Amino acid sequence: MKKSAKNRASKPKYVSPSQLSLAGFESPFERSLNPENRWVRLAKLLPWDDLCSIYRKHFPEKETGRPDLSPRLVLGAIMIKHICDLDDRETVDQISENIYMQYFLGYSSFCDTPPFDPSLFVEFRKRLGLEQINAINDRIAKLKRDIEAKQKDKSDDNQDTNPNKGSLIMDATACPQEIAYPTDVDILNDARMKSEELMDLVFECSTETIKPRNYREIARKDYLNIAQKKTKSRKNIGTAIKKQLGYLRRNITSINQLLDKCDTIPFDQKQYKYWFVIQHVYEQQQYMYSNNTHSVDHRIVSIHQPHVRPIVRGKSTAKVEFGAKINVSMVDGFSFLDDFSWDAFNEGQRLEASVEKYKERFGYYPAYVLADKIYCNRYNRAYLKENGIILKAKPLGRPSGEALSNQVSPGERNPIEGKFGQAKRAYGLDRVKARLANTSESWIASIILVLNLVYLAEVALLWIKLLFKKIKIEIHKLESLQTYFFIRTSID
């Protein structure tokens, strides 16, 4: 069998860099853009007018001062960042170098200057919080329903007596932060080093002439002695924790004594936060050491991100993850971020709220709910039964034949698991790089937004293909009808 020919990229011969010049380099800018490029196709499929109107509704344009950035530029840059899984600086560099990305952002011509400073991404994340992004997701879901309404013919409308419509799939997952794996010795060492910096600052502002001892060099050697060991026994770890607790306690006492002799507290807002976090870390670690336990309420695992909490998941790869926990509901392929919490929560307590949010979005309850076993407690089963909602899950007790038919068949809950995999592997949900609590929340919500926008583009593309197919069928019918009349006229 003859193999089909493949179009391969050109193979340029090696040319010494001394022989290349910008003036002689052939540029493709004289030609038109490739309409099959992914950014060109995505730009044409997305409802930019609706998205920008939602953005302007929450952030109206200022009448005075410097003009705001275009909403399309802001939303498009966030999409590019998460679709390509880039950091803030690399995203700005890619936009300034890629002509297709600039077309996607609404540029009228190529511009090699950066669209904005990379630090503005922090402001974007502060602006686009959970409430704003959920409003955009609701509008996106409405657009999808409008597309589906256009596909249906009026003659196909079925009279359904059940007021509940649609299916609701829900699940929870953790979104790990990009932090070093926390151990008690490492956390105490970080707190000790930060306390030494604060002590130096307070001493300069105090009236004391003799600096308090802090034994920082000895404390550093003690930390390295345990950190560089390949195998650490429980006795070695306990001894290291006891030493670091002693050093940290001494530093905290010295700082408090120096602050009493200062006219004003010399800390700025960030340093003042560190000061409170260090004291709280010492209290938690001292409690766990004294009571010989490894758990404490609201445990701090990073002094730089004190809002991060350990989330016990029980997975084979990572039994404990450090980050936020979210509860996501999925309707017709679109994902909605219903709950966001830095503390661990029981998913079973969130089912009722998710179902009520479904009713707020669509105006009716779902006909079916597909959820994991943890959601299917007695209270939730009674709530769903009261509202006429069918729970597709294993019934309690010895099930009847009719009850077994309502179980979740293999693969029915795969879509939401696939969404989690897509968000974590492709868009960076498994490595949240934002450092603040509110910017991390916006980071996660933005990834959910990107999932919905990409899916909307796929739905719109499919609708366009179906529309063209219907047009071709109608044209073929008209041509056949014209041919019939032409033949009939010729016979007559």
Describe what you observe in this structure.
The model has no long low-confidence stretch (mean pLDDT 82). This protein starts with 37 loop residues before the first helix and ends with a helix. Helix 7 runs parallel beside helix 16 (437-491). 51% of the residues lie in helices and 8% in strands. With 492 residues, it is an alpha/beta fold. Strands 1, 2, 3, 4, 5 and 6 form a 6-stranded mixed sheet that branches. The protein has 16 helices and 6 strands. It has 3 domains: 24-127, no CATH class; 163-179 and 309-435, Nucleotidyltransferase, domain 5, CATH 3.30.420; 184-290, no CATH class.
Note the total helix count. Answer: 16
CATH architecture of the largest domain: 2-Layer Sandwich
What is the CATH topology of the largest domain? Nucleotidyltransferase, domain 5
Strand content: 5-15%
Q: Please state the CA-atom Rg, rounded to the nearest Å.
A: 30 Å
Task: Report the mean per-residue pLDDT as an integer.
Answer: 82
CATH class type of the largest domain? Alpha Beta
Uncertain spans: none
Termini, distance in Å?
Answer: 54 Å
| Largest sheet, strands/sense/barrel | 6 strands, mixed
By DSSP, the count of extended strands is: 6
Structural class: alpha/beta
| Domains, number | 3
* Portion in helices: 40-55%
Outline type: globular
